[in-house]
Design a protein that fits this description.
The chain is of the alpha/beta class. The chain is built from 15 helices and 9 strands. The protein has 2 domains: 35-279 and 347-429, Metal-dependent hydrolases (TIM Barrel), CATH 3.20.20.140; 285-346, no CATH class. Strands 1, 2, 3, 4, 5, 6, 7, 8 and 9 form a 9-stranded parallel beta sheet that branches. It is globular.
Length: 430
């Protein structure tokens, strides 16, 4: 008669003990992750900008409807944001080059306005690893500058030094479409190439970047372009926002052969939190399921939706407008989806760290870093904007990464490459 209650009590005790143990372990992970996140310098190598958000009345001191702002960086514990001077690919003629140069200069000016006029007490520009550590020690946020697409150089190689003097410390030689400097990964779609890797001018630009101390970014150039860059470069290179092709077969990711080249070169690949570059199956399943919900929202807002192939053909202004509209549309869509049971799962922080795991196993902890591509299409569940940056550290702690390894992933490896590139430049200049 008394055995059944005792059995129930025993089962209840086991279940509650197990729950308490799980909660205790989760609390321990969170506590450890918070301590580590506070101590290490967190650095994101790719955050796009729109110059309209760098004015006296509208700027990053406010919590704008963008993925990166100073309040979001503060909340999420993101210390360093590489702001991107991005120019979409256009015609390879004088008219195109002048327009691209003007676009690039407007973005340089916007970043300088933020750090010099709008919020000099909150954020400062860094151009060296020493700057990063010095500014961080003062408790300020840090801005760094990367160039996405060398197209604005035009045919004037002296523009590389101009951009360097404005603070640029990395540059990719192409974007979506072949530039006058090198072929893009987008050539894989139709097997049509312009330069068969690097152009003669592109080869000169690689040498000039080595001379100045500017990191070469291979995230958008073609595989053949990357191969030739590594053969020519006297300094390590980076992929500023790419993931592992073995886990997600997209031309924007690096395959195992490319990863091998990068490791031998001493560079770093900055794993990117971009849904369709992390888990194609998951992304497609959710995207298909949400289409009718999203379409209704698009109609109600009266905006135009583009897929990523169409997006490539838009001019810079149209691209920036779409990125802003896309975020609004997806925020509303995701709120509706959250109310639906058993909806296909979103690409999330776990998928992101799966790529970090793979890259670390493949090429070693010394060659892997982190990027978001915020305000350029990036963002995943759990790291949807800078305010959620801590969640990446938490997942790394759960996977067993040590504080030293987490520091390397967040900033140490990238800053080491920057130091190495600077050292090569000093050697060349001397």
């Amino acid at each position: 008669m008394h055995k059944t209650p005792i059995l129930y009590f025993s089962l209840f005790f086991l279940v509650t003990s197990s729950c308490k143990s799980e909660h205790s372990q989760e609390d321990d992970f969170v506590a450890r992750a918070k301590a580590i996140h506070k101590r290490v310098i967190t650095l994101d190598t790719h955050c796009d900008i729109n110059v309209k958000n760098f004015t006296d009345s509208l700027n990053y001191t406010q919590d704008l409807d963008t993925q990166i702002t100073l309040p979001k960086m503060e909340k999420g514990g993101l210390d360093v944001a590489w702001f991107i001077v991005y120019t979409g690919q256009d015609s390879l003629n004088d008219t195109g080059y002048i327009k691209a140069y003007d676009n690039a200069i407007s973005k340089f000016k916007a970043i300088h306005k933020l750090v010099e006029d709008i919020a000099p007490n909150a954020i400062e520009l860094a151009v060296t690893s020493e700057d990063v550590r010095r500014i961080n020690a003062k408790g300020k946020k840090i801005a760094m500058i990367g160039i996405e697409n060398g197209y604005p150089i035009g045919l004037d190689i002296s523009n590389v030094e101009k951009f360097y003097n404005l603070g640029a410390r990395y540059m990719s030689l192409s974007h979506n479409g072949h530039s006058q400097l090198c072929d893009s990964n987008t050539g894989e779609a139709d097997d049509v190439w312009l330069n068969n890797g690097l152009s003669d001018l592109g080869k000169q630009v690689v040498s000039e970047m080595n001379r100045l101390g500017m990191m070469i970014d291979v995230s958008h150039p073609s595989k053949e372009s990357m191969k030739q860059m590594i053969e020519l470069s006297k300094a390590p290179i980076i992929a500023s926002h790419s993931s592992a092709r073995a886990l997600c077969n997209h031309s924007r990711n690096l395959d195992d052969e490319q990863l091998g080249w990068l490791k031998e070169n001493g560079g770093a690949v900055q794993t990117v939190a971009f849904t369709s570059y992390l888990n194609t199956e998951k992304y497609n399943a959710r995207n298909t399921a949400m289409e009718h919900i999203r379409d209704k929202i698009i109609d109600s807002l009266g905006v135009t939706w583009y897929d990523w192939d169409e997006f490539r053909n838009l001019d810079d202004q149209a691209q920036m407008e779409f990125v802003e509209n896309r975020k609004k549309i997806m925020d509303i869509t995701n709120k509706e989806i959250d109310q639906i049971e058993d909806f296909p799962a979103a690409v999330n922080v776990e998928d992101f760290v799966n790529h970090i795991d793979y890259l670390v196993q493949k090429i070693g902890i010394n060659h892997v870093g982190i990027s978001s591509d915020f305000d350029g299409g990036g963002g995943i569940e759990g790291w949807s904007d800078a305010s959620e940056t801590f969640n990446v550290t938490l997942e790394l702690v759960k996977r067993g990464y040590t504080e030293k390894q987490i520091e390397q992933l967040w900033s140490g490896n990238l800053l080491r490459v920057l130091d190495d590139v600077e050292a090569v430049a000093k050697s060349i200049q001397s």
